[in-house]
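Field: COMPLEX_INPUT
Field: COMPONENT_COUNT = two
Field: RESIDUE_TOTAL = 525
Field: MODE = joint
Values follow.
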Amino acid sequence: MINNLKYVYAKYSFLLKQLVERDFKVKYKRSILGIFWSLLYPVLMMAVMAIVFSNVFKFSTPGVSYLTYLLIGLTYFSYFSEASNLAMSSVVANFSLINKVYMPKYIFPLSKCIFVGINFLLTLIPLYIIIIATGTGLNWAHLFLPYSFICLFLFTVGMGFILSTIAVFIRDMFYIYGIIITIWTYLTPIMYDIKIISNSTLQFLMKLNPLYQIINFARSIILYHNVPTLGQWAGCGVSGLVIFIIGIIVFKKNQDKFIYYV
Amino acid sequence: MKKKENKIITDDIMIEVEKISMRFNLGIEKGFSLKQGFINLFNIKKRKELKAKRKKNVFWALKNVSFKVNRGEVVGFIGANGAGKSTLLKVVAGVMKPTEGNVDVYGNICPMIELGAGFDPQLTARENIYLNGAVMGYSKNLIDLKFEEIVEFSELREFLDVPVQNFSSGMVARLAFSIATIVDPEILIVDEILSVGDIAFQAKSEKKMMNMIGGGTTVLYVSHSLAAIKKICTKVIWLEKGKIKMVGGTEVCDKYLKYMEGK
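Field: COMPLEX_OUTPUT
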């Protein structure tokens, strides 16, 4: 098993790197600001949402900076939404390759998740600027944050596997997922605090959202300067791992059939 | 596909194809759409027709094909369009998994089935050499090592930093061929690609192919040019509607020709 993984890594890590590199080159080709868009985009998005939600809807999070609160959720969620979207279409988009050369098909969703992941790491720069500028401050618990990145990544890769499999068989998924993601945005406490949901059953159901678990983990470190509780560690890890494993199973079971649906 | 690299090779068999069949579902495209479903709702006759058609819409691209290839053999595949030649090569190359049967390949394969797979038109030739190389399964070291050779052979040095979308199709083909042929594989799969580029490049590429074939490589070769098949192949397999019609030496070509003329 371990040897097998090593073999696969040695054989396909170069291809993976090339695919990610291609995405970067193509994305920023001929744009003047290039990679700076990765920094600028979340900042502008946040500015718009901050203005709308704190001024128009008067949302606030007592005791902590609303701006930071918002940006944490936004950073995490937009990674998920962008990466899962790209991963979903990656297999269908690369049919011409799959039909010609042998390569492991999971490499396409995976490369998209890594590509957006690098962008995600860049968006941490504006996030930290905001953390410092709003006076939220740093603490040593920040060292645990990468755990939430890994969970987010695993969760997204798993979703990418599931979505790209469905998209091969049912192309309508591209449209359906657009709606799902919109609903998901509002059901995840990104712009609001989950405590404003007064119905306790609903609140419980919302906490089952893996993205809530992951974002909550990050918030407890950044905003409340807490070392996450055991429950938070578990919630975050289970969210990532379960979907990741389900994704692998679904993808593996169906990948040989892809070729018939070209 | 299974790659049993650790198995001891006893009698120098390189490829073992065992009773493979490949089924395609032609009806998938017309499977179901809301629009069609709605239209057919009012047309009972059509609905029955469609149902029957869907059942019939199974197409066997390959049916019960078995053969063995020994080390150093050059096997030519002939047959009419749609006989299953390319599908067979794709199954051997591992691109497709056969619906039934087994394929065992002992050795590394260089599938030159469709060249230039994975070229990104927006990237430059230089970037595409690495990308396409990676898609073909090369390592970075190998490409670094052979980069000069690729550039030299394709005669595209001055266009190295031009996006491939600005290339002529001949130039793209030349680049693709040059990348595909830098390896020294044990098994070479060739699907009709010798006619690449202009006359000068054709001669050059043919010579390179011959060198690769001549070096003791095991080759699977698909072509409609019987002359080429006769020239290089030691064994010829004639496919007809997904089944093997005849196996033998180059005399199979003559029989095939006679058969096609008589049609």
